[in-house]
Amino acid sequence: MKQIQPRRKNSLGLIGWVWGGNYKIERYLYTLHRATGLGLLLFCLIHLSVTTFFRLQQSSWETAMAILHNPWFKLGEYLVVLAFAYHSLNGLRLIIQELGFGMGKPTPPVYPYRDSLRKNRRWSMALVGTAAIIALVFLYDFMSGG
Amino acid sequence: MKNTYLWLAQLVAGILVAVTLSIHMVWMHLDTILGALGIDIKEPTSWTSMLARSREIIWATLYIALLTFGLYHALYGLRNVIFELAKSPIARRVVTWTILTLGILALAWGTYVPIVLLRS
Amino acid sequence: MKSNGSKDTTFKVQRYNPEKDTSPYFDIFVVPTTRGMTVLDALLYIKENLDNTLAFRTSCRMAICGSCGMLINHYPHLACHTQIEELRTKTVTIQPLPNLPVIKDLVVDLAPLFEKHKSVKPYIIRSDTAEMDNPSAEFAQSPEELENFLQFTYCIKCGICISACPTSATDELFLGPQALAQCYRYCADTRDHGEQERLPRVDSENGVWHCHLAGACSDACPKGVDPALAIQLLKRRLVVRATKIAKEKGPAPVVSPPTYIKPKLPFPEFTAGRNAATTEG
Questions:
Q1: A94: number of CA atoms within 13 Å, CB side?
Q2: Distance separating alpha carbons of residues B97 and C72, to the nearest angstrom
Q3: Which residue among B5, B8, B84 sits closest to C210, beta carbon to beta carbon?
Q4: In this predicted model, what pLDDT tens digit does every residue of B88-118 receive, in sequence order?
Q5: C274 assigned to some structural domain
Q6: C121 and C226 fall within a common domain
Q7: ipTM for this model
Q8: End of a domain among C50, C77, C108?
Q9: Considering just the CA atoms, what is the radius of gyration of chain A in Å?
Q10: Which residues pair with C77 in a beta bridge?
Q11: Where would a tag sit more exposed on chain C, N or C end, judged by fewer CB atoms within 10 A?
Q12: Distance from C-alpha of C160 to C-alpha of C79, rounded to nearest angstrom
């Protein structure tokens, strides 16, 4: 029998991280966790470089701070706060669930199947809601000139 | 076994970063709300305020802890993401050593400033 | 709706013939569908009446063999287990399962799945090989111990979880939810004592630590196996082993021979004559 080689590669690639299909929300919580993580890493590296300006004189520090008090930078800082709020709360959920707590015991499947993540959806949504509340608290402070 | 320990360290670092970074973010951004609660911060990014904090050992400890755990957590995460894309063993070894080097350099650079200021 | 109760549904099927085509393309077929028809029925109609070159796998048509996994309306389903009416669209898009190489049309190469499955040693491993080769009695396993892994034994190796996994989208070396769940199924089986042998494969960079609990595998699994749960329980097992929190338990022993045999009740009086007759004869 003729073997057709190589087989055609059919991987979703990087797009598969972002959208793989009509999956439930927990799969996209993963995508957001990865996006916020990478965003926070990028910010962390820039922030580290900027804040070490402090070891120079007062004038260079104050120039740097004057630039960073621009509204666009303030918006960027707010997005960092949002990203941190989501990433930390989702991370907390992941720590608990990846160590096997709160996932329930294996039970023989009876149709309609409800997997362990679906059973914990109220907690996942509660954490996302808490992140949203934290975002609103910080928004108030940002808007009032924080 | 090594990978298990690295992953567990990621979890522990994650929790510690969450705590220290929350303190940092609340102090930096929530001056209006904290002011209403009675804690007066007054421009946390001003020169005088930064100087005052740099003299206190508790803040220096907090910043160094935040940097250490934050760098470990972030760079382990980055390594994981890159490993899902680069699969050859040589590429993975290069990536690991590069990340380790950059991490140590960033840690040295970031801890140098608070230590120097503390001693001044 | 036609007089026989059928209505026309459009099927967009991805085609690819490696001998003729350089890249895949879509073919449009119009199939008369009725209530109760599955996507597999429609594909068989297409093959029998419209285009007999369409290639797809099918066998049991009752969601137990795992042959007919395919991407239907951008979600992996078993074609025999998906009613056309439940999709609620006028056009049904059918593509081969992603993250596995395509051989032709809707047929994917499942060799990567089988290789990864084999590599986690999915069989009972014990040190008492004499007993394994010539069993004297059964191994002692209580119903509670069975419940701890029974859910994961329902895997039909259809490959749908691998298609759903976002890590498998970029990392071909990742073991995948199927292999990892089966690794847990054997590690959690009290009759097994081979966790040490499976660990190097699973506690590696391409093993369990690339799972980030997206949960798409459990969402898509057509048999409710919940591989995500198995993988997180496997992580817990690895952590317990690495931190030596709990003591390691030995494998299930062979059931010991009965120490007390309940004496048989004597036959009732009214059978005495019959009994005497059979014993005499």
A1: 26
A2: 43
A3: B84
A4: 999 999 999 999 999 999 999 888 877 877 7
A5: no
A6: yes
A7: 0.89
A8: C108
A9: 22
A10: C70
A11: C
A12: 11
Alpha-carbon Rg for chain B in angstroms: 18
**Amino acid in position B79:** R
Is there a single domain that holds both residue C129 and residue C235?
A: yes
Range of the structural domain that residue C200 is part of: 111-243
Closest approach of chain B CAs to the CA of C218, in angstroms?
A: 21
Structure-token pair, residue C59:
């066998």
And the tokens for C50? Answer: 């419209």
Give pTM, 2 decimals.
0.90
| Nearest CB to A106 within list C102, C108, C148 | C148
C37 and C84 both lie in a single domain: yes
Assigned token pair, A133: 């509340």
Measured between alpha carbons, how far is residue B112 from residues B64, B66, C46, C222 in Å?
A: 9, 14, 71, 56
Are residues C127 and C92 both part of a single domain? no
Cα C22 to Cα B9, C17, C48, C93, distances in angstroms: 47, 8, 26, 21
Inspect the interface and report whether the beta carbons of C203 and B84 lie closer than 8 Å: no
Tokens coding B50: 């930064």
**DSSP 3-state percent helix, strand, coil across chain C (nearest 5):** 40, 15, 45
Tokens 């590296």 — which residue?
A: A45
Q: Which domains does chain A have, with CATH numbers?
A: 22-143 (1.20.1300.10)
